[in-house]
């Protein structure tokens, strides 16, 4: 007579690798002791000291995003390849791992999120800090009201050349960096103001209040998005910057690189 093991067991029969999303230490140890198993850990931090690890920029509440972006990172790092069958173990309803999904790696549905972090001019930590800031700002708004914001990250010299000041730059003579708690408070305060924030590769706030003037010719951003997103998308084609845009009207955070929309997340999900 067949048991549930036989039926659910098919989920991980003949897989090329097992992928654990943010496992606990003991869970990881148990899997690591299985012979001949290719094991990959994916998460925002390698808390279990896994040998093979892929870093996620965000925890991704949506399980499909989590797996999709995680597998994309694993493909980029040559840990898995197109067509590999994978048992992805993750938590959905609890803190511990409670779900296994069988997924086939698909190199074609590449979103470019790995390029955003790893292959940008700006340091990955800087991109991550700005993304977190935008998500936080989107969640809380400014004194309870929704706010929009546009952060241009990296290649600041060129970005400055393709923009002009809307008002005096409050960061003119300062040497402050993103990720600094006090700076995050300042950036949130200034997000009420018009224009864009310009941030250097290393995370220095170069300017606030910048009006971007990229050439928008041929830039293809989703219909319905306005001037902030158009300028935010276009400047990434004219320069090697990436942009992170918080929409005041739909509340989503989007990232652009090389003129393309790469990432769209709902801050409420984090
Ligand atoms: N070229 C630009 N450079 C910098 N900031 C801009 C630019 N164009 C618009 N903005 C900023 O974006 C704000 C919102 O503009 P708009 O509503 O057209 O954009 P949007 O893409 O619809 O964004 P949202 O979804 O937040 O409404 C403006 O008030 C301005 O502060
Ligand atoms: Mn608008």
UniProtKB/TrEMBL annotation:
Keywords: ATP-binding, Manganese, Nucleotide-binding, Nucleotidyltransferase, Transferase. The keyword Ion transport does not apply. Gene3D superfamilies: DNA integrity scanning protein, DisA, N-terminal domain. Its EC number is 2.7.7.85. PROSITE patterns: DAC. One of its GO terms (molecular function) is manganese ion binding. InterPro entries: DAC_DacZ, DacZ_N, Diadenylate_Cyclase_DacZ, DisA, DNA_integrity_DisA_N_sf, DNA_integrity_scan_DisA_N. SUPFAM superfamilies: YojJ-like. Residues 110-267 form the DAC domain. Pfam families: DAC, DACZ_N. It is an enzyme of class 2 (transferase). Its cofactor is Mn(2+). It catalyses: 2 ATP = 3',3'-c-di-AMP + 2 diphosphate. PANTHER family: DIADENYLATE CYCLASE. Diadenylate cyclase that catalyzes the condensation of 2 ATP molecules into cyclic di-AMP (c-di-AMP). c-di-AMP is a second messenger for intracellular signal transduction involved in the control of important regulatory processes such as osmoregulation. NCBIfam families: Diadnylcyc_Halo. Belongs to the adenylate cyclase family. DacZ subfamily. This is Diadenylate cyclase. It comes from Natronorubrum bangense JCM 10635. The lineage of its organism: Archaea, Methanobacteriati, Methanobacteriota, Stenosarchaea group, Halobacteria.
């Amino acid at each position: 007579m067949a048991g549930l093991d036989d039926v659910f067991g098919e989920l991980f029969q003949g897989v090329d690798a097992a992928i654990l999303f943010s496992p606990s230490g003991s869970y990881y140890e148990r899997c690591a002791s299985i012979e001949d198993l290719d094991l990959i850990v994916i998460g925002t931090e390698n808390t279990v000291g896994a040998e093979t690890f892929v870093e996620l920029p965000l925890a991704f509440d949506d399980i499909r995003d989590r797996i999709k972006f995680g597998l994309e990172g694993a493909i980029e790092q040559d840990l898995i390849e197109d067509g590999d069958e994978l048992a992805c173990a993750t938590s959905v309803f609890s803190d511990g791992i409670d779900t296994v999904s069988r997924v086939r790696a698909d190199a074609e549905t590449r979103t470019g999120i790995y390029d955003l972090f790893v292959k940008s001019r700006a340091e990955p930590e800087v991109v991550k800090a700005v993304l977190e800031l935008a998500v936080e700002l989107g969640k809380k708004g400014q004194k309870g009201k929704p706010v929009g914001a546009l952060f241009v990250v990296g290649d600041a010299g060129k970005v400055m050349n393709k923009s002009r000041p809307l008002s005096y730059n409050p960061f003119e003579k300062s040497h402050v960096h993103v990720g600094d708690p006090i700076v995050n408070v300042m950036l949130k305060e200034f997000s009420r103001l018009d224009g864009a924030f310009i941030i250097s590769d290393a995370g220095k706030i170069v300017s606030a209040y910048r009006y971007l003037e990229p050439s928008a010719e041929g830039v293809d951003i989703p219909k319905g998005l306005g001037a902030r997103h158009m300028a935010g998308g276009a400047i990434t084609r004219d320069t090697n910057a990436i942009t992170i845009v918080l929409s005041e009207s739909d509340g989503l955070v989007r990232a652009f690189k090389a003129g393309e929309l790469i990432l769209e997340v709902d801050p409420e999900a984090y």
